[in-house]
Amino acid sequence: MKQRIERIKKELHSKGYKLTPQREATLTVLLERESDHLSAEEIFLLVKDKAPDIGLATVYRTLELLSELTIVDKINFGDGVSRYDLRKEGVDHFHHHLVCMECGSVEEIIEDLLGDVEKIVEDDWGFHVKDHRLTFHGICKQCQTSKAKVN
Fold this sequence. Notes:
Number of domains: 2
CATH superfamily of the largest domain: Winged helix-like DNA-binding domain superfamily/Winged helix DNA-binding domain
Strand order of the largest sheet: 1-3-2
Radius of gyration: 18 Å
CATH class of the largest domain: Mainly Alpha
CATH topology of the largest domain: Arc Repressor Mutant, subunit A
Number of helices: 6
Largest sheet: 3 strands, antiparallel
């Protein structure tokens, strides 16, 4: 985790920003809970344990900055809540998600499934794709199994 924070610190410095203690506490929470897709309020409550003097506005500003710098991705799964997802290192695109409409679970698909689609969009429409997001909404395997047992 220290190495990842150090790399993010260098990235911030290269773009004219500092890794303040508040930003570091926020990043630490995101790293510790990398698979959780937390809201700003959830992140704030966890950061507050590490930095009791931090305010909600500071966490929001930090998340917005990290989002602008594509260190963090701001996502919405259709429930009206913005969630924050630390971008995986060494990937060109945001990863994909499977959202269960029954239990609300979120699974990540790390591999890029849209390379061919991007090429078609670029070739046929002359549109240079910088990034993409794909979220599948459906019923997870566990909910399907539970439903089958009931029937």
